[in-house]
Design brief:
The complex is a heterodimer. Chain A has twelve helices and no strands. Chain A is mainly α. Chain B is mainly α. Chain B has one domain. Helix content of chain B is 88%, strand content 0%. Chain B is built from three helices and no strands. The longest helix of chain B is centred in the middle third of the chain and has 34 residues. The chains are: A mainly alpha, B mainly alpha. The interface between A and B is large, with 48 and 36 residues.
Chain lengths: 372, 81
């Protein structure tokens, strides 16, 4: 095993760690409404979400192809660039998690890789048309679309069942939430696990293990699916233990409309290979379902935070990715840089977790009825 | 300007995402609400008005079929990529 293979090993481990944190971070989005409306017991909701995340990762590879081919020049990518991009994404994710900002893991990942690429090769190495067409424009459209679909969806629901007794209606929508919640978990696994697959594929191509036009290897699909499912499962236990009481009640019809709309938008976008932010999409859907019932149901201050994080994530992760690439290069082109940065990264992760847990979890609630 | 935007963004694809998500989200919400309405009404009118109960039951079944078909279509579309 030479130095390049050691760096590749570090990159794969870092990518899977990113995938794990992605699942850990996003569990709340996937299961919160199901738990808050008591559609499913927390343990069952989390376990099903983890299983569906795993299954979802096998459904499509369109997003992985976008990450691997459409955003940066494959010929110029090195494993060190991919590593720096991943570290940039993880650092930004941790910083936003620390401050309770609902940031997008997807945009952080794309930003990190783009920033490292810019630091290494300049603007010519980035496909700005792919970045705009496949990432930026869908990033703007997805949450707005989810807001609109959920808003229309909940109005339709209320119109159809408006005069019925609330008891059976609530029981019916709880049953529907079992279905829509699982579709959301499936959609989440499909879109998010593929980002890690795309990055590992990019590193394998850069290291010469795969041809530029190669498809994603099966072991990459299985390991990415496993990492996101494990993250979802473990993240869920944390929610149940420490944050369950902070989930605010929302009615089952709203939960159903929000989850169904979020899943519809994510699945439609995934089909065309758009690596959109599941966090922002689900937040948009929850706000839409809340706002359609009553505008004051939405915590507009927190919605403002989402917009700020939304705008900042890509450039900030790019900046961190670029800086990390520069720091890595200070140690030369060998294996020393990635090892030192990885060790410092692990220390940083532990420090942030300990600090956050000492202070209590930050709340990132976006509307009545959603969780942090 | 429009040509540049069209070059950068595949507008046709993006419009497809918008209408597919809109139709899927709203139709599933409508169909599932009809399942609930049909089931509840069928239960309420079961003995006194059997024909009305039967029609409501039929509405519930049709709604359920639409929901199941939408989910099956979504998953099969994903599998074909």
């Amino acid at each position: 095993m030479d130095g390049a293979d050691v760096i590749l090993g570090i990159v794969v481990a870092t990518a899977l760690a990113f995938d794990f944190t992605n699942g850990f971070h996003d569990t709340a989005n996937v299961v919160a409404t199901t738990i808050s409306t008591r559609a499913l017991p927390p343990r069952v909701a989390v376990t099903l979400a983890a299983l569906l995340n795993f299954v979802g990762a096998f459904l499509s590879l369109a997003v992985a192809a976008t990450i691997a081919k459409d955003i940066v020049d494959q010929q110029l990518v090195t494993t060190t660039i991919v590593f720096a991009g991943l570290v940039g994404a993880i650092v930004w994710n941790l910083v936003t998690w620390y401050f309770g900002l609902p940031s997008s893991s997807s945009h952080a990942l794309v930003g990190g890789v783009v920033g490292a690429m810019l630091a290494a090769h300049g603007t010519s190495a980035v496909h700005f048309d792919g970045l705009a067409g496949k990432v930026l424009v869908p990033a703007v459209i997805a949450p707005v679309l989810a807001f609109a679909v959920a808003g229309i969806g909940i109005v339709v629901c209320y119109r159809v069942v408006g005069r019925l007794a609330p008891g059976p209606v609530s029981r019916g929508y709880r049953l529907g939430q079992v279905l829509s919640g699982q579709m959301l978990a499936l959609a989440h696994g499909t879109n998010d696990a593929q980002k890690t697959m795309g990055v590992i594929t990019l590193a394998l191509i850069a290291n010469g293990n795969l041809a530029p036009d190669a498809t994603v290897p099966t072991w990459v699909v299985v390991s990415a699916a496993t990492a996101i499912a494990l993250g979802t499962w473990l993240g869920g236990w944390r929610i149940i233990k420490t944050m369950g009481s902070r989930i605010i009640k929302m009615d089952p019809a709203q939960g159903f409309a929000a989850q169904g709309s979020g899943a519809a938008v994510i699945l439609a976008a995934t089909h065309f290979g758009y690596p959109l932010s599941t966090t922002h999409t689900i937040s948009g859907a929850v706000m839409g379902a809340g706002a359609a019932k009553r505008l004051s149901a939405v915590r507009w201050g927190v919605a403002g935070n989402i917009v700020v994080a939304w705008v900042l994530t890509l450039p900030a992760a790019a900046l961190v990715g670029g800086v990390v690439y520069g720091v890595t290069r200070l140690f030369g082109g060998g294996v020393a840089g990635p090892i030192v940065v990885a060790a410092a990264g692990v220390a940083f992760v532990v420090w942030v977790f300990v600090r956050r847990l000492q202070q209590g979890a930050a709340i990132t609630t976006t509307a009545e009825g959603t969780s942090a | 300007m429009t040509a540049l935007a069209t070059k950068i963004v595949d507008l046709g694809q993006l419009v497809q995402v918008v209408y597919v998500a809109l139709i899927a989200g709203v139709v599933v919400s409508l169909a599932f609400s009809l399942v609930i309405r049909g089931s509840v009404r069928a239960g309420e009118r079961g003995r006194e008005r059997p024909i009305a109960a039967g029609l409501h039951g039929l509405m519930a079944v049709l709604g359920l079929l639409v929901v199941v078909a939408a989910i099956a279509f979504g998953v099969s579309t994903m599998l074909s990529k």
